[in-house]
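Field guide to reading this record: the first block holds the primary sequence, the second block holds the structure written as discrete tokens, and the final block holds curator observations. Each block starts with its own label. This record concerns D-amino peptidase, catalogued under organism Streptomyces radiopugnans.

BLOCK 1 — SEQUENCE
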Amino acid sequence: MTKILISADMEGATGVTWPADVLPGTPQWERCRPMFTSDVNAAIAGFLDGGADEVLVNEAHWTMRNLLLEKLDDRAQMLTGRHKSLSMVEGVQHGDVDGIAFVGYHTGAGAEGVLAHTYLANSLTGVWLDGERASEGRLNAAVVAEYGVPVVLVTGDDRTCDDARGYAPAARGVAVKDYVSRYAAVCRTPARTAADIRAAAKEAVALAVRHEPTGPRPRTVEIEFDAEHLAGAATVVPGVEQTGERRVAYTSPSMYEGIRTFKAVTTVVSAAVEEQYG
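BLOCK 2 — STRUCTURE
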């Protein structure tokens, strides 16, 4: 039995280039939801073409209620909704996942890439994991490695595929658009990206082989903000220390704890952002 988990984010989906494209409730978000669902369906079909027995999709964007369940390939199941223990990679911790796909991913805060950010749309200007600049992809790859699960497929813009080579060099990558600016890209059509994703997912099944879990070990996360008061606000989270005017850092005993602390920091910081001045 081969089980694939798809972590589905939206900023890296086909056709998405603008904040309104991913902001729940906007007309543009409604327009982009079918293209997002198409990307995920292509991955599902490809994994099943390649011999996977089970596919679970974990909704990973914002409210985590964006994919169209009624349009989803009915051979898969979907985990939807917020407040999950491992957030974007929820489900990997149960010991039955053989490989994970990052579909619709994007680059991290401070990097080139369409809608580049890390968890918060703004406020964070950089995140580092053990000294290496970290996107959501790198953070999540470190989490799943603790459970022995390889990243087998990454889709997003071309910069996202470049980023993935740093944390999952063996994974298949599919660029659904080419970066022009944070809010512009040369986009491929949904029909073309679906074909590309399906073909790559079919190949990626061969990579879905659980490896020896890396196991818990201390991990250090550094976060830089665009305003000094946000660094101060973040220090209310236990273990988080201010290391510079706009920087904080913390060390966790495992990546499991590290990502949970990161979620706590971003939650606190988002509440400290004022409407006019940030």
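BLOCK 3 — OBSERVATIONS
The first strand starts at residue 3 and ends at 8.
The chain has two domains: 3-124+133-207, 219-271.
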